[in-house]
Fold:
Amino acid sequence: MLVRSSGSLDRRAFFQGAAAAGLTIAAGGPGTAQAADPVQRPSALAITRVETFPLIHKLPRAEGPSTAMSAMRDTLLVKISTDSGLHGWGETADVGGTRGIIEDHLRPLLLGKNPLNHRKLWRELWGANFGDGRAVAAIDIALHDLRGKALGMSVAELYGGRLRDSVPVYAAAMNYKEGLDPETQFPAEAAALAKRGFRAMKVRTGRFDMRRDLAVLAKIRETVGPNIRLLTDGNGAFTLPQAVRFGKELEKLDFYFFEEPLPQGLNYAGYDELTRSLDIAVAGGEVLDSRSSARDHIVKRSFDVIQPDPTLCGGIGEVLFIAEMARLFSVQCLPHCFAGAIANAATLQLLSLLPPFTFGYSSDEPMLEYDVNENPFRDELVRDPLVLENGRFHIPTGPGLGIEINEEVVGKYRTKSNS
Ligand SMILES: [Mg+2]
Structure:
């Protein structure tokens, strides 16, 4: 039976109310309804500059997931400026020539164009053959930021308004660190995060033999107790049989999900079989580049939790589309997020638009993945860093992404060869 809220307006009541409120209602066509105090729409706006800023920060000690180590953090920012003085910021990873694609191929498509024609520009950026998901993502986020600022609306408002004011956060933490044993490092880090107010946290796993890694995870569970949500990321260190055995042990330790234990890649080979073999949720998809690559994995259920990243997978609109597509197949979408303040802000706006996973009163909400490792691009870059409150972040309400970038800090970390 169709259930209808007693509070909803029927068609006649809506038109009567609209007339009383002084709204002009025309039959179709542009400007169908105009509020008494409309947002002033900029009459002319043209993109004048598209700049890229590769940022690098050297770490005092190399760290990383189970399968790699690095003594450096890096990210790529994009700034789109207009003749009105308004500008927007985007972020992505400079992998495989992303910066060159933005500068040589996408910038010429944007210069002189009106950023309010976002949808048209977005189609042109992709081109006819599903172009580069990272390059398009950075531009798409900057266009969202710019368009929101031009119209005086947050990104969430551009999509019709947010569904929540804050989101739960999980700390992406516990990297392996050079010269430290995870047996002592990880439980101590988990305890410190719990003390800071994080109610969910993710730990790297898969570097050592299975018994050693499992003992570390068991120690973390023992340290934080049963009420902290634990997640783990294998970063491609396992074979399929190893991942099945390991995943069954994670079930006993009450982990929330097991992320990407098998080698990554757009084909995510074997993940569908792994997902069918385990009760624990299998998460994956951070390297997906578009709705096209996400589609097959949703249909064949490669993951219980799909993790497209708005900075790597075509931008905010593309990941929103993927999240809706996943929902049709009862696959949870928890976007990947592991970069700087712009990535966090874009993901927060996106998360504000995603409904709870079910209609149940205790349904899980989407969580923000929040990198808590040493990363100056997270806190230094913005004038108002995010503040954890009851394990959650408030979603910024200002225009665009709702953040203000400190350009002095951009200059501080910009690589010298590119300044
Ligand atoms: Mg991961």
